[in-house]
Design goal:
Layout: E1 11-16, E2 19-24, E3 28-36, E4 40-41, E5 43-46, H1 50-65, E6 76-81, E7 87-92, E8 103-112, E9 115-124, H2 127-142, E10 144-146, E11 157-160, E12 163-166, E13 175-182, E14 190-196, H3 206-212, E15 221-226, E16 235-242, E17 248-256, E18 267-273, H4 288-300, E19 303-304
Antiparallel strand pairs: 1-2, 2-19, 3-4, 3-13, 5-9, 6-7, 7-8, 8-9, 10-12, 11-12, 13-14, 14-18, 15-16, 16-17, 17-18
């Protein structure tokens, strides 16, 4: 195999969730996922016109109107126009085999500067409670602001695909935010970064899970140890992998478990893998030594994003609010 020697690349910072992490200049972040606890998954579509937004709302309403419900009527309940320009919610009952109970699904479509944000939440059927739910939804949608390319914002909040959800004292949720990272200069090298709510019961630590699954090989392990990054306790497991076609690649993982239901102590995971080919694995373009250098540079850049005024809590300061 022929490695391509690598100087430690210059890193550019990227805001992901409430953290900053550096990746080699020129990388592309794609396949974003963003889920806000209490709001659900946020889907983003760019270059959407007002007429396309209106048609989207109409199509979804017609879809639920076309499905009979076994408790009478259809799944469709109503369309609610929110007190934000170019925003509307389609309220409908759960699937036609479910009872019409205390909750409705609320699909919301919010158009902001030709970017469509779609979210889906449960909402109360009691008018007063439903109104409160809609006000909270409006408050959250109003908090969205766009980010300039490569911007590291100073305001508290969660950053995702070209945008961020601004914090307010009453709006500190746990979120899941992540992306895939491609490096055109080294197309066989990829990263995955994910910050996620770990719920009521965090997973066991990375190395414990690997040992229980007998997934630590006898050969090829470059490191397998506890590792604190930016004051965040975690564990890393780094392997040289021989693929079924005989090629040699790398699989590196670092994971922090965090604390239950804490936006300021989430579960964090960084993966780096090499040897990605178009149709099959190829030999890594990085030697073990260069792969370790790159890994250490990227991982050591991870830190909680400083904010002004300071966020209500930080992973190494105040205990923070419960989500």
């Amino acid at each position: 195999m022929h490695y391509q020697p690598m100087e430690i690349p210059e890193l550019a910072p990227h805001a992901v969730g409430r953290y900053v992490i550096g990746f080699p200049k020129g990388v592309i972040l794609l396949n974003w996922c963003q889920t806000l606890r209490g709001l659900g998954k946020i889907k983003i579509t760019r270059n959407v016109s007002q007429s396309e937004w209106e048609q989207k709302v109409k199509i979804r309403a017609n879809h639920f109107q076309s499905i009979p419900h076994n408790r009478g009527g259809t799944q469709f309940e109503k369309i609610v126009k929110l007190n934000i320009p170019y925003s509307a919610s389609v309220l409908y009952w759960p699937d036609d085999i479910s009872p019409k109970g205390n909750d409705l699904w609320c699909e919301t479509y919010y158009l902001k500067e030709n970017v469509l944000f779609e979210v889906r939440i449960y909402i109360d059927v009691v008018p007063k409670d439903q109104e409160n739910d809609l006000h909270r939804l409006e408050d959250t949608l109003r908090s969205i602001r766009f980010l300039q390319p490569n911007e590291i914002p100073k305001e508290p909040g969660a950053c995702f695909d070209g945008a961020m959800l601004m914090d307010a004292p009453e709006r500190l949720y746990s979120e899941m935010v992540g992306a895939s990272i491609l490096w055109p200069d080294r197309p066989d090298v990829r990263f995955e970064f994910l910050v996620s709510d770990n719920g009521d019961r965090p997973d066991p630590p990375l190395l414990t899970r690997l040992k229980r699954a007998n997934a630590i090989p006898l050969l090829g392990v470059l490191r397998s140890r506890a590792r604190v990054v930016g004051g965040i306790p975690g564990e890393e497991h780094l392997e040289r992998v021989t693929e079924s076609n005989g090629t040699v690649s790398h699989l590196f993982i670092w994971e922090a478990q965090g604390l239950p239901n804490r936006f300021d102590h989430p579960q964090i995971r960084l993966d780096m893998s090499t040897g990605h080919g178009k149709d099959a694995p190829i030999h890594s373009t990085l030697s073990d030594e260069d792969a370790l250098k790159l890994w250490d540079a990227v991982l050591d850049s991870l830190h909680w994003r400083p904010t002004e005024p300071p966020t209500q809590a930080g992973p190494r300061t105040l205990p923070g609010r419960q989500s």
